[in-house]
Amino acid sequence: MSRPTVRTTAADRAHVHIRSAILSGELAVGVMLSENDLATEMAMSRTPVRAALARLQEEGLVAIYPQRGAMVRGLDARELEEAAEIRRALETAGVAGAGDVARAALLDRLQDNIVAQERALARGDFAAFVPLALQFHRGFVEVGGNALMLATYDRIQDRQQLAINRSAGRIVGDPAQVVSAHRDLLGAAGSGDWVAFSEMLADHQARSHDFGTAG
Amino acid sequence: MSRPTVRTTAADRAHVHIRSAILSGELAVGVMLSENDLATEMAMSRTPVRAALARLQEEGLVAIYPQRGAMVRGLDARELEEAAEIRRALETAGVAGAGDVARAALLDRLQDNIVAQERALARGDFAAFVPLALQFHRGFVEVGGNALMLATYDRIQDRQQLAINRSAGRIVGDPAQVVSAHRDLLGAAGSGDWVAFSEMLADHQARSHDFGTAG
DNA sequence: AGGATACGTCTGGGATCCCAGTTGGGCGAG
DNA sequence: CTCGCCCAACTGGGATCCCAGACGTATCCT
């Protein structure tokens, strides 16, 4: 009954450790990361740390300068806008590619999600609202049933997480308007009108200054 | 005037080497890759080879089984279809996000490309046609001016390359019809009608059995 | 005093060594 | 002859060591 597959590799531990440190804002943008320091801090060799940094570089969270060090990468406004455009494309594609039954199931699920969003905003709990909003938007990709697309979306999505935590609760835009837009989006998605969905989403992203907040 | 930045790292060399070997079909799907063999073959240590394999795993070209080895990953029909759907979403988004001047410039460029496609097909030179077709489709993403989106597209695209080389010249669908579809796509893109573009592209992909061929 | 230079110390990249886990083949028992 | 077990030869993961390159600083010359 042993589970040999769960063997958590040190490189993975290093990866999630550094990653969460960056996303949580514990490691500020621009700080130089030393393989040595990270290794000693996590009580392991430099080898897994280097592997983790390489992965993080591919994910776009750090930039490795040869013979210089690794720096926590920030995202400029342009990059955030580009990420938003990609998410819009994928969410739209998800809605467009969804079958009727999947759409119906999505409607149920996200309707509950919206209620939770309203409750969170009503008590001013932004920390609870942000994950709900992210999950809400992700649902439109999930409904398409395209695993590769969902993985691509997630890859883009979590660099967004960085900017969100940077702005720390400072939500741009009227909360009520955001929830209202979410409701409209869900309506368009439920009826399968992906053209309208895409345009509403563009508007929604622009109004909530989506790059930098939860949208 | 020295260019110290061109210092090509051994890990990069290993990466492009293995990558091209896989994409060219030199390394068949399913074969096990040994870090030792690869290292000795390329006259380097296992360290850069391992880094390269890790990158290739993230790119989806190989699968690494712990304590077992790395296997060249194949793509099943479902994955190819999913990739096609993503490419469609991104090409559509590129067209939708393009400005007027960029679209006009694209029209010029791709018109020449289509002529080259016709010439290649006329002399039955599929080896020349495939890169042209890939470049053609990529143009719709380029025109959007979203660097991150283009990078995402490329990541998805080159796993397609694998399937293309697998089918080795066996183009499914009528060549004349393919070029005709390309011409229609360019027309829709030139007028900025991204909705029509998306639907035509879906049809085009389905007709040419896009997953597995050049499309 | 100002600037060019040389050196010490940091960085990451690569090589080598060691270890645990996996596997498949061979040998022995039934 | 067949089945099961055991061992030997692989695998990749991690640790350690060594190396070349990049900076910062101190120093020396002008």
Spans of chain A with pLDDT under 50 lasting ≥5 residues? 1-5, 210-214
**How are the strands of the largest sheet of chain A arranged?**
1-3-2
Largest sheet of chain A: 3 strands, antiparallel
Shape of chain A: elongated
Compute the number of helices of chain A. Answer: 9
Q: Largest interface: which pair?
A: A-B, 30 and 31 residues
Helix share bin of chain A: 55-70%
Task: Give the oligomeric state of the chains in this entry, treating copies of one chain as homo and distinct chains as hetero.
Answer: homodimer
What does this structure look like?
The structure is a homodimer of 215-residue chains. By secondary structure, chain A is mainly alpha-helical. Helix content of chain A is 68%, strand content 5%. The longest helix of chain A has 23 residues, at 100-122. The structure holds a DNA duplex (30 and 30 nucleotides).
Record keyword descriptors for this entry.
homodimer; 215 residues; three-stranded antiparallel sheet; disordered N terminus; disordered C terminus; DNA-binding
Outline the secondary-structure elements.
The structure is a homodimer of 215-residue chains.
Chain A: H1 10-23, E1 32-33, H2 35-41, H3 46-58, E2 62-65, E3 69-72, H4 77-96, H5 100-122, H6 126-142, H7 147-167, H8 175-191, H9 194-207
Antiparallel strand pairs in A: 1-3, 2-3
Helix pairs in contact in A: 1-3, 2-3, 4-6, 4-7, 4-9, 5-6, 5-8, 6-7, 8-9
The structure holds a DNA duplex (30 and 30 nucleotides).
